[in-house]
Design brief:
InterPro entries: DUF5956
Number of strands: 6
Pfam families: DUF5956
Radius of gyration: 14 Å
Distance between the termini: 24 Å
Largest sheet: 6 strands, mixed
Shape: globular
Structural class: alpha+beta
Helix content: 25-40%
Number of helices: 4
């Protein structure tokens, strides 16, 4: 079982390369990384990708951090992960030639908009997508 404490903490400022929001790419200590916003879906991807492919940096707390934590951690727990520690920004390694949209396409569960969400299926889709992303790289 993975533990969030195994994810490397990098005490450096990432350098913005491109994108914004869900497609924000940064450079951090020579690594090209996809910034993962502090929400359940993106942090489930961090959990699935694991500590070899994800790093974190210290980040300031949001004024509504308690509310954010409740939603993010309940999503993670329902998907079979453990609550993530607060106070960090999370980043996923991008293989050479892979774009943020490639990542989101390959980890998508393919559910119809508005349909019920089974977080175990979402996690399984992410696991398959991560295998494709990093086995092909």
């Amino acid at each position: 079982m993975t533990d969030w404490s195994l994810f490397l903490v990098v005490d450096a400022e990432p350098v913005e390369v491109s994108g914004g929001g869900r497609d924000r790419v940064v450079l951090l200590e020579g690594r090209r990384l996809l910034a993962l916003p502090d929400n359940g879906y993106e942090l489930l991807l961090a959990w699935v990708a694991g500590p070899r492919r994800v790093v974190r940096t210290p980040a300031p707390m949001h004024p509504d951090q308690d509310i954010i934590d409740t939603f993010v951690n309940s999503y993670l727990v329902e998907a079979g992960a453990v609550p993530r520690p607060r106070g960090f920004a999370w980043y996923l390694d991008l293989p050479v030639g892979v774009t943020p949209s490639d990542v989101w396409h390959v980890v998508d569960a393919g559910r119809a908009h508005g349909s019920p969400v089974d977080l175990h299926r979402v996690r399984e889709a992410m696991e398959r997508g991560v295998a494709v992303l990093y086995d092909a790289a």
